[in-house]
Amino acid sequence: MLLSDPATYVPGTLDVAGDADLRRYWLDLFRRHIASVVAHVAREHPDEPALQRRMETAARAFASDVDAFEADPSTRFDTLQLCATRERRLREAGVDDPFRRAKARENEAALRLLPALLAEIDGLAEARRLERLVRGIFAGNVFDLGSPATAALFAEGGIGFEAVRARLPARPWRVDDLEALEERFEREIRRALLFVDNAGGDVVLGMLPFARELLRRGTRVVLSANETPTLNDVTHDELVALVEHLATTDPILAEALSQGRLVLVTSGNGLPLLDLRTLGAALRAEIGRHPPDLVVLEGMGRAVESNWHARLTCDVLKIAMLKDVTVARYLGGTLYDVVCRFEPATPVAGSKPIA
Ligand code: MG
Description:
The chain is an alpha/beta fold. It has helices at residues 20-44, 49-71, 79-92, 100-122, 126-140, 148-155, 161-166, 178-186, 201-216, 236-247, 251-259, 281-289, 300-305, 325-330; strands at 175-176, 191-195, 220-224, 262-264, 294-298, 315-321, 338-343. Helix 2 (49-71) runs antiparallel to helix 3 (79-92) and helix 10 crosses helix 11. 44% of the residues are buried. The protein binds magnesium ion. Residues 144, 146, 197-198, 231, 233, 272, 299, 301 line the site of magnesium ion (MG).
């Protein structure tokens, strides 16, 4: 489903296990990251010592998993698998969502900025909107507590959406298909499926304004967030609450919700990366009933680390800020570069084009 060649699909872009330096880099990164989550929980939940102890238990178990990968160079693994192992250790130790409070705080901060941002976008000439919306997605995407680089920034008190937006790299971006995207927007987009990434400014100030623009143009929009918590990714339940709240004041969202043109469907997943073969039953049914003509994969994990080489049977926008130096280097760039890749639909592998 969605994939034009499922037989050759691999939801891992970098060959982490096959490159000794990359392998060491990523194992070390996951080891340092889980230690930082222990510190995060201690800081965010000083009133919950039992949770802190469960978090320490999870971190110890995961650190020994990482050690085991390191000890045996013949083990194959990718970042998706490392993420899955980490989530399993958290759940086993009884840690459900270590970033719950951070997400709620960032959501509230972003909601305060949203009315002015929407007014700014609504005041723009049609031709300038898409670039502004794309830049908003880049700027929002910096709220990432899975990347040590940006997690450190947030531990120091956060970074403002406006400040990031003002300092985004100039065009052309590392991958810059904005013009192709603008051309696509000149034709009707009947149905769009948006895989969202993080809570806070990412979804509230980046993806929701983008979705709202599609709705304004008459597109049917499906927003798909993760089923279960991972890092600071917004969950489906959190997104439903956010959208319902926003619809009380925004007529475009309110009308689209009431018409059934804005639909929220859980992805069925619980990782910061996305394996397109393991979409949940509800989303598969939705895609079957209403095949999208545009899919948006947002964020480094979904767009780059797992699906950069994925070919889809419909048009696809892969959009992200690069918050890891090895991922940035893979794309010939540097930390905090941004990518906006638009790929037209690829026919199903093996099918003959209609003569
Ligand atoms: Mg994320």
